[in-house]
Amino acid sequence: MLSATLLAGLSPALASAASTAPAVTPAAVSAVAAPVDANAPTILVGFIIAQTNSPFAVTDPGRVAQIAARAVNDSGGIRGRRLVVDICDTKGQAAASLACARRLADAGAITLIGGNSGNGVDKILRARKMAAWFPMGSNQADIRNPLAFITALNSAGAAQGAYLGARRFGAHSAVYVSMLGNTTYQGTARFGYAQAGVSDVRIVEIPPGTTDFAPYVAKIKALHPDVWGGMLYPPEQQTLLVEAAAQQGVTIPFVSSNNVIENATLAALSKAPFPNSIALEKGEDARRFPTWAEYQRQLAKYDPQGAVKGPTDGSVTTDWLAVWTFAQIARELPTVTVDSFRERVSQDRHFAVDVLHPIDFTREAPVEGMPRQENIWAFAGHVAGGHEVVDDVTPFSAWEKTPVMPWTPAQVQAATGH
């Protein structure tokens, strides 16, 4: 359900779309926004991410965060004040993450997006009583941190993708491909498979910076799993893996989430000789989800040259949504301060937009060590024709074992062309 809070700032056309989209309640939207007051103090949000000098460096999240800020300011800002997103590049260094958090807090940031508490960011959050809004969320320190408000754990995508794929293709055995030493993703993938009744799960690890994936694909084929897949980072690695599998004639169904996926990955999966199953986190369908339509509108307006290479990547869309939803929440606060924002989200029992299953930030999860996991959800989907396709707009959860009907061979062929 799209709340009145988050409909604020949508264009009139998108607000109208919300009234006709399934499971979306219409709400009043101001058609004309007052201009930003150039003389008013700005509202600062800190954004912590590795953009350079790291094998895991990415630029898309920062780009979409700035796109969201521009759209917010073009629609009146936050109560007439300009929103500023200050991106601090950690260059992949833990000490730099802590330094970024300290600098941004000293500069007056209302909240921090990105980063992770394992690098010491939680020390700053606790000292300043700041909320971490949509942190990376794949670190146990984030999960234990009551000031970390997580809407989508990156590692949870491994479980959701595994669960959905195993159910869809009726798997009894699986191979999970992960970055070398990424035990968090491996563990959650095993959990997802176990929830689907798959205990035979083999792990294939790939070192960062790998460019020749042929030996790893050969190993996957030799294991003869019912399904295979996983998540490599950055997204270019995932694309190379899919392309290598296609070149070697793999026909085993591929399962994953869209947490690590770029346009090139979508193209590669669409041409591959194997069917696929993708767990989608943001309702990637502009016809049915007004927030996704707004995201696409902003990309078209502010990134006409397509500098964002992975506009549907789960990490990228999460960072756009972090800025966009921060602005909508801040617009409802009488005064926007560190305290008022923290208090608002810490008491939120029904955080929702039309692309998010309602989240209760006050609850902990049924899975030990991973709080709020009952809030982790996804939509069943697949990739075809260079696009992500939402097969079912009902969100599901691997943790709650929401039923996902397996596909018949005829349905697989109809959906994928293979």
UniProtKB/TrEMBL annotation:
The entry's keywords: Signal
Domain Leucine-binding protein: 43-364
The UniProt record lists the keyword Lyase: no
A Pfam family assignment: Peripla_BP_6
Source species, domain of life: Bacteria
Signal sequence range: 1-17
Transmembrane segments: none
InterPro entries according to UniProt: BCAA_transport, Leu-bd, Peripla_BP_I
Family the UniProt entry places it in: Belongs to the leucine-binding protein family.
UniProt-recorded name of the protein: ABC transporter substrate-binding protein
Organism: Robbsia betulipollinis
